[in-house]
Write a structure and sequence with these properties.
The chain is an alpha+beta fold and 246 residues long. Helices cover 34% and strands 23% of the residues.
Length: 246
Protein backbone atom coordinates (compact mmCIF):
# COMPACT_ATOMS: atom_id res chain seq x y z
CA UNK A 1 0.00 0.00 0.00
CA UNK A 2 1.13 3.53 -0.75
CA UNK A 3 1.67 5.65 2.36
CA UNK A 4 2.29 8.90 0.49
CA UNK A 5 -0.96 10.83 0.16
CA UNK A 6 -2.27 11.55 -3.34
CA UNK A 7 -5.18 13.88 -3.98
CA UNK A 8 -7.01 16.24 -6.31
CA UNK A 9 -9.30 19.21 -5.74
CA UNK A 10 -11.66 20.49 -8.45
CA UNK A 11 -14.22 23.30 -8.58
CA UNK A 12 -17.16 23.89 -10.90
CA UNK A 13 -19.86 26.54 -10.47
CA UNK A 14 -18.95 26.92 -6.82
CA UNK A 15 -19.07 23.21 -6.04
CA UNK A 16 -15.76 22.00 -4.61
CA UNK A 17 -14.95 18.30 -4.94
CA UNK A 18 -11.96 16.69 -3.23
CA UNK A 19 -10.53 13.16 -3.20
CA UNK A 20 -7.47 11.68 -1.50
CA UNK A 21 -5.95 8.25 -0.88
CA UNK A 22 -3.15 7.14 1.43
CA UNK A 23 -2.34 3.76 3.01
CA UNK A 24 -5.52 2.33 4.55
CA UNK A 25 -7.46 5.59 4.12
CA UNK A 26 -9.54 7.11 1.34
CA UNK A 27 -11.44 10.39 1.41
CA UNK A 28 -14.05 12.03 -0.80
CA UNK A 29 -15.72 15.38 -0.11
CA UNK A 30 -18.21 17.65 -1.89
CA UNK A 31 -19.63 21.05 -0.99
CA UNK A 32 -22.83 20.01 -2.79
CA UNK A 33 -23.84 16.91 -4.66
CA UNK A 34 -26.24 13.98 -4.97
CA UNK A 35 -26.93 11.44 -2.26
CA UNK A 36 -25.98 7.85 -3.08
CA UNK A 37 -28.24 4.83 -2.90
CA UNK A 38 -28.03 1.70 -0.79
CA UNK A 39 -24.64 -0.03 -0.84
CA UNK A 40 -22.39 -2.45 1.03
CA UNK A 41 -18.76 -1.46 1.61
CA UNK A 42 -15.84 -3.65 2.76
CA UNK A 43 -14.22 -0.81 4.74
CA UNK A 44 -15.28 1.20 7.77
CA UNK A 45 -17.24 4.14 6.36
CA UNK A 46 -17.39 7.53 8.07
CA UNK A 47 -19.83 10.11 6.71
CA UNK A 48 -19.15 13.52 8.22
CA UNK A 49 -21.36 16.58 7.76
CA UNK A 50 -19.71 19.97 7.65
CA UNK A 51 -22.75 21.62 9.21
CA UNK A 52 -25.86 19.51 9.66
CA UNK A 53 -27.02 15.97 10.32
CA UNK A 54 -26.26 12.69 8.57
CA UNK A 55 -28.86 9.91 8.56
CA UNK A 56 -27.94 6.27 7.98
CA UNK A 57 -30.43 3.42 7.58
CA UNK A 58 -29.14 -0.12 8.01
CA UNK A 59 -30.38 -3.33 6.39
CA UNK A 60 -32.97 -3.86 9.14
CA UNK A 61 -34.44 -0.36 8.73
CA UNK A 62 -32.83 1.00 11.91
CA UNK A 63 -32.09 4.73 11.55
CA UNK A 64 -29.06 6.49 13.09
CA UNK A 65 -28.67 10.27 12.96
CA UNK A 66 -25.87 12.60 14.02
CA UNK A 67 -23.29 15.11 12.78
CA UNK A 68 -21.44 12.03 11.55
CA UNK A 69 -21.97 8.27 11.39
CA UNK A 70 -19.65 5.27 11.39
CA UNK A 71 -20.82 2.29 9.34
CA UNK A 72 -19.11 -1.10 9.97
CA UNK A 73 -17.55 -3.05 7.10
CA UNK A 74 -19.91 -5.29 5.17
CA UNK A 75 -23.14 -3.69 6.41
CA UNK A 76 -25.64 -2.70 3.75
CA UNK A 77 -26.84 0.84 4.37
CA UNK A 78 -28.21 3.99 2.78
CA UNK A 79 -26.87 7.36 3.90
CA UNK A 80 -28.39 10.80 3.38
CA UNK A 81 -26.56 14.03 4.12
CA UNK A 82 -26.89 17.78 3.59
CA UNK A 83 -24.70 19.71 1.18
CA UNK A 84 -21.18 19.82 2.52
CA UNK A 85 -19.93 16.38 3.56
CA UNK A 86 -16.78 14.30 3.78
CA UNK A 87 -16.64 10.54 3.39
CA UNK A 88 -13.68 8.80 5.03
CA UNK A 89 -13.07 5.09 4.47
CA UNK A 90 -10.74 3.05 6.69
CA UNK A 91 -9.67 -0.42 5.61
CA UNK A 92 -11.31 -3.03 7.88
CA UNK A 93 -8.11 -3.84 9.81
CA UNK A 94 -7.80 -0.18 10.82
CA UNK A 95 -10.30 -0.27 13.71
CA UNK A 96 -11.12 -2.77 16.45
CA UNK A 97 -14.67 -2.47 17.80
CA UNK A 98 -15.77 -5.48 19.83
CA UNK A 99 -18.78 -7.63 19.04
CA UNK A 100 -21.02 -7.05 16.03
CA UNK A 101 -21.20 -3.26 15.96
CA UNK A 102 -24.09 -1.43 14.38
CA UNK A 103 -24.01 2.02 12.84
CA UNK A 104 -22.74 4.54 15.40
CA UNK A 105 -23.53 8.25 15.62
CA UNK A 106 -20.62 10.64 16.16
CA UNK A 107 -20.89 13.89 18.07
CA UNK A 108 -19.83 17.26 16.70
CA UNK A 109 -16.50 17.28 18.57
CA UNK A 110 -15.53 13.91 17.06
CA UNK A 111 -16.56 15.09 13.60
CA UNK A 112 -14.50 18.28 13.91
CA UNK A 113 -11.38 16.33 14.88
CA UNK A 114 -11.74 14.02 11.89
CA UNK A 115 -12.55 16.81 9.43
CA UNK A 116 -9.48 18.75 10.56
CA UNK A 117 -7.14 16.06 9.19
CA UNK A 118 -8.99 15.22 5.95
CA UNK A 119 -8.86 18.51 4.09
CA UNK A 120 -5.65 17.95 2.12
CA UNK A 121 -3.17 15.21 1.30
CA UNK A 122 -3.82 12.53 3.87
CA UNK A 123 -0.98 12.10 6.35
CA UNK A 124 -1.51 8.48 7.45
CA UNK A 125 0.49 8.85 10.68
CA UNK A 126 -1.51 11.88 11.83
CA UNK A 127 -4.78 10.38 10.65
CA UNK A 128 -4.15 7.08 12.47
CA UNK A 129 -3.48 9.02 15.66
CA UNK A 130 -6.71 11.03 15.36
CA UNK A 131 -8.78 7.98 14.36
CA UNK A 132 -7.51 5.96 17.32
CA UNK A 133 -8.02 8.85 19.72
CA UNK A 134 -11.56 9.34 18.42
CA UNK A 135 -12.77 5.82 17.60
CA UNK A 136 -10.42 3.32 19.25
CA UNK A 137 -7.31 1.28 18.57
CA UNK A 138 -6.54 -0.95 15.61
CA UNK A 139 -6.64 -4.73 16.17
CA UNK A 140 -3.56 -6.91 16.53
CA UNK A 141 -2.72 -8.50 13.16
CA UNK A 142 -0.74 -11.63 12.36
CA UNK A 143 2.54 -10.25 10.89
CA UNK A 144 2.26 -12.60 7.91
CA UNK A 145 -1.18 -11.24 7.11
CA UNK A 146 0.13 -7.70 7.58
CA UNK A 147 2.77 -8.53 4.98
CA UNK A 148 0.07 -9.83 2.64
CA UNK A 149 -1.81 -6.54 3.04
CA UNK A 150 1.33 -4.61 2.10
CA UNK A 151 1.52 -6.63 -1.14
CA UNK A 152 -2.18 -6.54 -1.94
CA UNK A 153 -1.96 -3.80 -4.56
CA UNK A 154 0.75 -5.64 -6.50
CA UNK A 155 -1.98 -7.72 -8.25
CA UNK A 156 -0.20 -10.92 -7.25
CA UNK A 157 -2.46 -13.97 -7.44
CA UNK A 158 -3.79 -14.79 -3.94
CA UNK A 159 -2.23 -18.28 -3.99
CA UNK A 160 1.15 -16.79 -4.94
CA UNK A 161 0.66 -14.08 -2.33
CA UNK A 162 0.24 -16.79 0.33
CA UNK A 163 3.51 -18.40 -0.72
CA UNK A 164 5.33 -15.06 -0.58
CA UNK A 165 4.26 -14.47 3.05
CA UNK A 166 4.87 -18.04 4.22
CA UNK A 167 1.27 -19.24 4.48
CA UNK A 168 -0.86 -21.84 2.80
CA UNK A 169 -3.63 -20.40 0.64
CA UNK A 170 -6.17 -21.94 3.03
CA UNK A 171 -4.58 -20.30 6.10
CA UNK A 172 -4.38 -16.94 4.31
CA UNK A 173 -8.09 -17.15 3.53
CA UNK A 174 -8.81 -17.99 7.19
CA UNK A 175 -6.78 -15.03 8.43
CA UNK A 176 -8.54 -12.79 5.92
CA UNK A 177 -11.97 -13.73 7.26
CA UNK A 178 -10.78 -13.37 10.88
CA UNK A 179 -9.04 -10.02 10.33
CA UNK A 180 -11.06 -8.15 7.71
CA UNK A 181 -14.33 -10.09 7.69
CA UNK A 182 -14.06 -11.42 4.14
CA UNK A 183 -11.73 -12.32 1.27
CA UNK A 184 -8.70 -10.30 0.28
CA UNK A 185 -10.11 -10.13 -3.24
CA UNK A 186 -12.94 -7.91 -1.97
CA UNK A 187 -10.50 -5.52 -0.33
CA UNK A 188 -8.42 -5.52 -3.52
CA UNK A 189 -11.54 -4.59 -5.49
CA UNK A 190 -12.03 -1.60 -3.18
CA UNK A 191 -8.39 -0.54 -3.63
CA UNK A 192 -8.84 -0.68 -7.41
CA UNK A 193 -11.98 1.42 -7.13
CA UNK A 194 -10.35 4.11 -5.01
CA UNK A 195 -7.45 4.24 -7.48
CA UNK A 196 -10.03 4.65 -10.25
CA UNK A 197 -11.54 7.53 -8.29
CA UNK A 198 -8.22 9.37 -8.44
CA UNK A 199 -8.16 9.05 -12.24
CA UNK A 200 -11.81 9.47 -13.27
CA UNK A 201 -11.86 13.30 -13.45
CA UNK A 202 -9.04 13.24 -15.98
CA UNK A 203 -9.69 10.24 -18.24
CA UNK A 204 -12.65 8.41 -19.71
CA UNK A 205 -14.26 5.67 -17.61
CA UNK A 206 -13.21 3.09 -20.20
CA UNK A 207 -9.56 4.18 -19.97
CA UNK A 208 -9.66 4.20 -16.17
CA UNK A 209 -11.23 0.73 -16.06
CA UNK A 210 -8.43 -0.66 -18.22
CA UNK A 211 -5.72 1.05 -16.15
CA UNK A 212 -7.01 -0.02 -12.73
CA UNK A 213 -7.72 -3.71 -13.22
CA UNK A 214 -11.43 -3.79 -14.09
CA UNK A 215 -12.63 -6.02 -16.91
CA UNK A 216 -14.30 -3.11 -18.69
CA UNK A 217 -16.25 0.11 -18.08
CA UNK A 218 -19.51 -1.66 -17.03
CA UNK A 219 -17.52 -3.66 -14.46
CA UNK A 220 -16.15 -0.42 -13.00
CA UNK A 221 -19.62 1.15 -12.88
CA UNK A 222 -21.19 -1.92 -11.25
CA UNK A 223 -18.45 -2.00 -8.62
CA UNK A 224 -18.86 1.69 -7.78
CA UNK A 225 -22.65 1.35 -7.45
CA UNK A 226 -22.27 -1.76 -5.27
CA UNK A 227 -19.65 -0.27 -2.93
CA UNK A 228 -20.61 3.43 -2.94
CA UNK A 229 -24.18 3.68 -4.20
CA UNK A 230 -23.16 6.10 -6.96
CA UNK A 231 -22.04 6.00 -10.57
CA UNK A 232 -18.81 7.59 -11.89
CA UNK A 233 -20.86 10.24 -13.70
CA UNK A 234 -22.80 11.40 -10.63
CA UNK A 235 -20.25 14.00 -9.48
CA UNK A 236 -19.27 17.38 -10.87
CA UNK A 237 -15.72 16.03 -10.78
CA UNK A 238 -16.51 14.17 -14.03
CA UNK A 239 -17.49 17.42 -15.76
CA UNK A 240 -14.39 19.58 -15.38
CA UNK A 241 -10.65 19.52 -15.74
CA UNK A 242 -10.02 22.72 -13.81
CA UNK A 243 -7.04 21.36 -11.86
CA UNK A 244 -4.20 18.94 -12.58
CA UNK A 245 -4.01 15.48 -11.01
CA UNK A 246 -1.53 15.23 -8.14
Amino acid sequence: MIEQGRSWRLERNGNVVFAAVSAEFACYAESSGPVGGGHRHPAWQLMLSWDGEVTATDETGRITTGPGVLVPPGMRCAVTHPDGFTGLWIDPYGLAIAGRPGIQALDRAQVRRLLACTGGDLDPIQLRRIVRRTLGDAPAIDPRFSRALSLLDSNTDIEDLAVRVGLSARRLRQLSVETIGGPLTTLRRWHRLREAGLQLPFHSAAEVAAQTGFADQPHLIRTMVALCGRTPGSSDARMTLSAPAR
